[in-house]
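User: Could you go from structure to sequence for me? I need the amino acid at each position, not a summary. Structure tokens:
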């Protein structure tokens, strides 16, 4: 746990030092679980959005985009079930007065057992080398099987308690497992109770219940209430999807772990409308499509795994998470849910309007089923940031900090660096930037030695550095340095646009998805 904390602290420190993420309102000592994206963070965030949007909307003829309002009619949230059922199990420690999600306490207890299993597996793999059979080891090693049985028993009991809404047994399980408060170290827990996560406010000058409105806790409902508007105006036939990127707000019990869990966050969601009875087929399709989208970034296939839900949301008949190996362990990055026809039927009932699709092939009208993919943009940002940050020892014994951000997502694509601040080199460097800036986000720097400037660009993930020297003035060639390999090559200025484009163009990622 200490190592995980150190990893996260390192990411947080680097993010602030180089202009990716700042604590919000820092001059007033900050605001809990609120962060501002700095100059590089805003660029990286926008590039992640573009990768998602282009892969969803541009690359699929049957998926279109939407941008719905944050404020929605309050009956929307009654229909969706959020007012009655959008809760997390809350528990307090009486000695520390700290508040926790009861389900997270149990999940973290299980995660510690999984870490022990992983250590046993890694140790055996190192001992036996190429002859190691992981599947056989996991099924026969006494320590591993004992721990796995413990995990299965905890999971089964926990799942049963949650599905039965038996909060007394959730508390009893926490006590039986000997889970202590991380702050006080005691087991002096309150009862578990449900806590609604929605932010409530008032609209306009009206006070009282008639003016109550909510900040949306998810973007999906804006898609559902616009189902017919989009379908009729776009003339789409089933199956088709509606994609949206937008802010959402949840009054989290415990908002922590940097930008992983915040009360104001951004979602990238797509709702895919399908014929009833085809949901299992499309569920598998979108599971495969979404893991391929992640793996195309090259952040390491071992950093991803699927985790099926123990307790289904009230609207789902199948649900899984794509988990990522964050600095604090495997945590949810994206959800894929089969939402059945719950949402559209609920909005039909509460609005009195028909939300149905007329199928010209079968000549029947029905409420479509929905497959949802939902990814937290801030979590995706953290996944890219944390996996890209690396310390390297070079062949000469020196060290460098490098951000191996996938090149199409990198905030700055190329830095143009005059070797000196005189002899016309800065003017030539400016000429190059003025040609490249129409296609790429570029950066100019002339301060410090060229080596120090290379290191600064490595630390923010810039794929290319272009050095302008005295030879440039003679033959219009420059030295281009590649971030990951640090190889340097002399090329013509006219070739720069092509060389950079081959590495940083978003199409290099999108073509991997075909």
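Assistant: Here is the amino acid at each position, in order:
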């Amino acid at each position: 746990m200490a190592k995980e904390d150190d990893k996260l602290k390192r990411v947080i420190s680097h993010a602030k030092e180089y202009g990716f993420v700042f604590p919000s309102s820092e001059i007033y000592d900050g605001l809990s679980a609120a962060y501002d994206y700095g100059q590089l963070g805003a660029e990286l965030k926008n590039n992640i959005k573009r990768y998602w949007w282009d892969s969803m909307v541009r690359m699929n003829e049957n998926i279109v985009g939407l941008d719905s309002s944050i404020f929605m009619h309050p009956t929307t949230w009654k229909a969706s079930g959020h007012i009655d059922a959008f809760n997390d199990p809350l528990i307090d420690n009486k000695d520390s007065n700290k508040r926790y999600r009861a389900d997270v306490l149990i999940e973290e207890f299980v995660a510690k057992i999984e870490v022990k299993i992983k250590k046993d597996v890694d140790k055996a793999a190192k001992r036996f080398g190429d002859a190691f059979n992981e599947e056989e080891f996991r099924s026969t090693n006494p320590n591993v099987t004992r721990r796995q049985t413990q995990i299965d028993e905890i999971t089964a009991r926990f799942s049963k308690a949650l599905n039965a809404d038996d909060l007394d047994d959730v508390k009893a399980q926490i006590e039986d497992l000997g889970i202590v408060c991380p702050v006080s170290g005691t087991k002096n827990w309150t009862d578990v109770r449900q806590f609604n996560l929605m932010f409530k406010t008032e609209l306009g000058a009206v006070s009282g219940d008639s003016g109550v409105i909510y900040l949306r806790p998810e973007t999906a409902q804006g898609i559902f209430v616009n189902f017919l508007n989009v379908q009729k105006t776009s003339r789409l036939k089933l199956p088709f999807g509606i994609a949206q990127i937008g802010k959402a707000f949840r009054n989290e019990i415990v908002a922590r772990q940097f930008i992983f869990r915040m009360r104001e966050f951004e979602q990238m969601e797509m709702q895919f409308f399908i014929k009833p009875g085809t949901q299992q087929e499309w569920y598998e399709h979108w599971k495969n499509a979404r893991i391929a989208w992640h793996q195309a970034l090259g952040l390491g296939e071992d950093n991803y795994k699927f985790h099926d839900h123990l307790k289904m949301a009230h609207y789902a008949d199948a649900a899984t998470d794509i988990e990522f190996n964050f600095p604090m362990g495997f945590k949810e990055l994206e959800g894929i849910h089969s939402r059945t026809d719950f949402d559209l039927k609920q909005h039909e009932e509460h609005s009195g309007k028909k939300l149905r699709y007329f199928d010209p092939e079968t000549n029947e009208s029905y409420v479509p089923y929905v497959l949802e993919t939902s990814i937290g943009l801030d979590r995706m940002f953290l996944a890219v940031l944390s996996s890209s940050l690396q310390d390297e020892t070079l062949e000469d014994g020196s060290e460098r900090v490098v951000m191996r951000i996938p090149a199409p997502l990198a905030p700055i694509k190329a830095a143009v660096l005059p070797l000196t601040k005189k002899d016309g080199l800065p003017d030539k460097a400016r000429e190059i930037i003025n040609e490249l800036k129409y296609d790429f986000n570029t950066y100019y720097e002339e301060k410090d030695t060229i080596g120090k400037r290379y290191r600064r660009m490595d630390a923010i993930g810039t794929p290319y550095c272009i050095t302008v020297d005295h030879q440039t003035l003679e033959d219009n060639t420059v030295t281009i340095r590649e971030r990951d390999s640090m190889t340097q090559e002399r090329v013509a200025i006219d070739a720069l646009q092509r060389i950079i484009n081959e590495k940083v163009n978003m199409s290099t990622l999108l073509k991997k998805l075909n």
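One structural detail worth keeping in mind: The first strand starts at residue 21 and ends at 23.
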